[in-house]
Amino acid sequence: LAKTTQPISMDSYEGQEVNITCSHNNIATNDYITWYQQFPSQGPRFIIQGYKTKVTNEVASLFIPADRKSSTLSLPRVSLSDTAVYYCLVGDMDNQGGKLIFGQGTELSVKP
Amino acid sequence: EPEVTQTPSHQVTQMGQEVILRCVPISNHLYFYWYRQILGQKVEFLVSFYNNEISEKSEIFDDQFSVERPDGSNFTLKIRSTKLEDSAMYFCASRRGGPVGQYFGPGTRLTVT
């Protein structure tokens, strides 16, 4: 599984757009990029997944450049409830194992 | 929206005792997982399960651990003889198949005294 690097922490204010960038220089051809959110004492929650270009859902957008060596999770107009740890994971999701290897994630703190 | 459920939410046990953690994955999912998270640390993969057998397991998943899908809905993790260091949140996850995300349950907090 490709190793990922993301900032340890970020601060933001309510109403701002937050962009969290993740580096994955060794991403393989079959790898997908997936982002999860975790609140304290809760299970990780799937946010978004992509392979290339841009993916958008009701929660976030995921931007992936052509070389796929990085990706950016964009959270529009964050609120206090978006304070959480965000994980970037890269791996082959289409095999029988499909295990997820979590790093330390990015601790996002949203202030009023 | 379908959810992964886990029971109990909190389990306290004495060292050396056996515990069984239960999970009900989302009904049309085919791949099942257990992860754990020791307080203040990152989420760690334990085991994946597909087609009624273990597909992959980590070094943590030693002979003290076992998994089972006893019927069409439950997925269990058994720890035969618990140690103090087994104290953690245990998360069950499932996914449908193909390149889609895994969906996690709320977790079981296991406290070994």
Molecular structure report:
The complex is a heterodimer of chains A (112) and B (113). Chain A is mainly beta and 112 residues long. Chain A has no helices and nine strands. In chain A, the strands form two sheets. Chain A has a five-stranded mixed sheet with strand order 1-9-8-3-4, with no helix packed on it. A four-stranded antiparallel sheet of chain A has the order 2-7-6-5, with no helix packed on it. In chain A, a hairpin with a 6-residue loop joins strand 3 and strand 4 (45-50). Chain A is globular. With 113 residues, chain B is mostly beta strands. Chain B is built from no helices and eleven strands. In chain B, the strands form two sheets. In chain B, strands 2, 4, 5, 6, 9, 10 and 11 form a seven-stranded mixed sheet that branches. A four-stranded antiparallel sheet of chain B has the order 1-3-8-7, with no helix packed on it. The relative contact order of chain B is 0.35. At the A-B interface, strand 3 and strand 4 of A face strand 4, strand 5, strand 9 and strand 10 of B.
* Relative strand content of chain B: over 45%
Structural class of chain B: mainly beta
Task: Strand order, main sheet of chain A: write it out.
Answer: 1-9-8-3-4
Outline of chain A: globular
Low-confidence stretches of chain B: none
Q: What is the makeup of the main sheet of chain A?
A: 5 strands, mixed
How many E strands of chain A? 9
Largest β sheet strand count, sense and barrel closure of chain B = 7 strands, mixed
Shape of chain B: globular
Kindly report how far apart the N and C termini of chain A lie.
38 Å
Largest interface: A-B, 25 and 29 residues
- End-to-end separation of chain B: 37 Å
Mean pLDDT of chain A: 92
Q: Beta-strand level of the residues of chain A, as a percent range?
A: over 45%
Helix fraction of chain A? Answer: under 10%
Work out the oligomeric state of the chains in this entry: heterodimer
Task: Please report the number of helical segments of chain A.
Answer: 0
